[in-house]
């Protein structure tokens, strides 16, 4: 089982949006996925409760109140026969608890917004993850997502300049789009929207997939159907842990 932790100690960073859309997209590609919600606000759980019954199944695990120091994530989902677990972590985590969310994670995604406050928090988070979270430089587990960005704005340019000096891969830019607002209301992922609506967003999710599975992927023929292209990529994922 591949475990993906989405975390940021600052609230409002786009963690739940990233976690829910990632879970929906993995399910859409035909994989068994669990969405583990540690956030006391339970935004991911509420999204999952709104998910239409005719959409690909996502197993939900409400972990609010679970003592993560004693119960490892894989124990919560072990009986669900899942291939992926996407973990939405709470904000305002004590730095000493980062290790409990990171120790079993194959990948850790850190969303950051284009503002000075958020970049300052991001810099501290990276330091805390190295010191307290067991993340080692160069181990390939930590990736940054530029969240809610608007191209050709000063804030975006400043964010890109900041991220360029980090020794952490920037995996993708997630647009500040009404697509994500609508999907949050409907229990959908942005990759499940009709092709004409999701087209501008698909490149980011393909980039995230390539990073989650670091093996080289073969050249793929161009296709107007993005969901088909993603499904072909996901079929390359192994049936064992990374």
What does this structure look like?
It is a single chain. With 242 residues, this protein is α/β, with parallel strands linked by helices. The chain has one domain (2-231): P-loop containing nucleotide triphosphate hydrolases (Rossmann fold, 3-Layer(aba) Sandwich). 38% of the residues lie in helices and 16% in strands. It is built from ten helices and seven strands. Strands 3-2-4-1-5-6-7 form a seven-stranded parallel sheet, sandwiched between helices. Helix 6 (154-164) links the parallel strand 6 (142-149) and strand 7 (170-175). Helix 9 (202-212) runs parallel beside helix 10 (226-234). The N and C termini lie close together (8 Å). The model is unreliable at 215-228 (pLDDT under 50).
List keywords for this structure.
38% helix, 242 residues, 7 strands, seven-stranded parallel sheet, alpha/beta, Rossmann fold
Provide the fold topology.
Blueprint: E1 2-6, H1 15-28, E2 33-37, H2 43-49, E3 59-62, H3 73-77, E4 84-88, H4 98-102, E5 107-112, H5 116-131, E6 142-149, H6 154-164, E7 170-175, H7 178-186, H8 195-198, H9 202-212, H10 226-234
Helix pairs in contact: 1-2, 9-10
């Amino acid at each position: 089982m591949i475990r993906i932790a989405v975390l940021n100690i600052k609230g409002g960073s786009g963690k739940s949006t990233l976690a829910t859309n990632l879970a929906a997209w993995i399910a859409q590609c035909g994989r068994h996925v669990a969405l583990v919600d540690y956030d006391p606000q339970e935004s991911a759980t509420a999204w999952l409760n709104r998910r239409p019954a005719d959409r690909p199944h996502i197993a939900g695990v409400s972990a609010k109140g679970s003592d993560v120091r004693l119960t490892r994530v894989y124990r919560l989902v072990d009986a669900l026969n899942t291939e992926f677990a996407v973990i939405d972590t709470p904000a305002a985590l004590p730095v000493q608890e980062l290790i409990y969310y990171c120790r079993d994670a194959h990948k850790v995604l850190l969303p950051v917004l284009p503002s000075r406050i958020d970049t300052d928090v991001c810099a501290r988070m990276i330091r805390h993850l190295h010191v307290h979270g067991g993340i080692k430089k160069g181990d390939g587990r930590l990736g940054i997502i530029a969240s809610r960005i608007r191209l050709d704005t000063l804030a975006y340019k400043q964010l890109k300049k900041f991220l360029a000096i980090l020794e952490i891969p920037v995996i993708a830019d997630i647009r500040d789009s009404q697509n994500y607002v609508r999907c949050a209301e409907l229990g959908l992922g942005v990759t499940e929207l009709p092709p004409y609506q999701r087209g501008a967003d698909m490149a980011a999710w393909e980039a995230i997939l390539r990073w989650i599975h670091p093996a080289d992927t073969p050249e793929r023929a161009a296709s107007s159907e993005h969901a088909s292209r993603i499904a072909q990529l996901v079929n390359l994922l192994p049936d064992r842990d990374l």
